[in-house]
Design goal:
Low-confidence stretches: none
Shape: elongated
Mean pLDDT: 80
Largest sheet: none
Order of helices and strands: HHHH
Number of strands: 0
């Protein structure tokens, strides 16, 4: 049986790297997003609570235990 091959083109071989200048805003965005998620899961209860009541605590309860945060 014959093997079919596709010839490589110049655009396939040369992939331009992403510069740090272009990557920096995304890194900052995801860093802030991860810190916010860490706060909501781990710290949104008690003295540092931004939301009153137990709603956030109850929504994040299992995730808090899974990640090892004490909550009771």
């Amino acid at each position: 049986m014959a093997q079919a091959t596709v010839p490589a083109t110049a655009t396939d071989a040369a992939i331009a790297p992403i510069s740090l200048k272009a990557l920096a805003p995304w890194a900052v965005f995801f860093g802030v997003l991860m810190l916010a998620l860490l706060y909501v899961v781990g710290g949104e209860q008690g003295a540092t609570a931004l939301v009153q009541g137990e709603t956030i605590h109850e929504w994040m309860h299992d995730g808090r235990h899974l990640l090892g945060f004490p909550c009771h």
